């Protein structure tokens, strides 16, 4: 039995005005209760060291890697076809098994070129490896 024959049913509406009012109240509450930390105002006195630079050790092997993938050991360009050849060149340049390899890689050198030096050092039995960096100068 339909008692409301002539009356059409209205579509329900969602009124967003109360929702917006509620969100504004929550936003104001969050803004009023939030604490902000100011890390920029931390005053830290960092320690300083007045030690002299250590003298270059005689057992260092300087390996330069250019952005083009060329290698130089102690200033001499090295041409090789396999990593074994590079390892042989490192063995010849080392004075002892305690030699430290200093990798001077160009910023544009490929990752693989640096990994080749690391692998050749491992094959040559030279376990000490370090990377040279350059400090930024202010102009």
TrEMBL record:
<comment type="similarity">
    <text>Belongs to the ExbD/TolR family.</text>
</comment>
<keyword id="KW-0472">Membrane</keyword>
<feature type="transmembrane region" description="Helical">
    <location>
        <begin position="16"/>
        <end position="36"/>
    </location>
</feature>
<dbReference type="InterPro" id="IPR003400">
    <property type="entry name" value="ExbD"/>
</dbReference>
<protein>
    <submittedName>
        <fullName>Biopolymer transporter ExbD</fullName>
    </submittedName>
</protein>
<keyword id="KW-1133">Transmembrane helix</keyword>
<dbReference type="Pfam" id="PF02472">
    <property type="entry name" value="ExbD"/>
</dbReference>
<keyword id="KW-1003">Cell membrane</keyword>
<keyword id="KW-0813">Transport</keyword>
<keyword id="KW-0812">Transmembrane</keyword>
<keyword id="KW-0653">Protein transport</keyword>
């Amino acid at each position: 039995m339909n008692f409301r024959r002539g009356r059409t049913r209205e579509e329900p509406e969602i009124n967003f005005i109360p929702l917006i009012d509620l969100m504004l109240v929550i936003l104001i509450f969050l803004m009023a209760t939030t604490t902000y930390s100011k890390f920029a105002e931390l005053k830290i006195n960092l320690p300083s060291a007045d030690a002299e630079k250590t003298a270059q050790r005689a057992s260092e092997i300087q390996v330069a890697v250019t952005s083009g993938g060329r290698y130089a050991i102690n200033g001499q360009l090295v041409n090789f076809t396999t990593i074994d050849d590079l390892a042989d060149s490192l063995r010849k340049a080392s004075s002892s098994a305690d030699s430290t390899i200093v990798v001077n890689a160009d910023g544009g050198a490929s990752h693989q070129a640096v990994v080749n030096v690391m692998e050749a050092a491992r094959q040559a039995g030279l376990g000490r490896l370090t990377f040279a960096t350059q400090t930024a100068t202010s102009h």
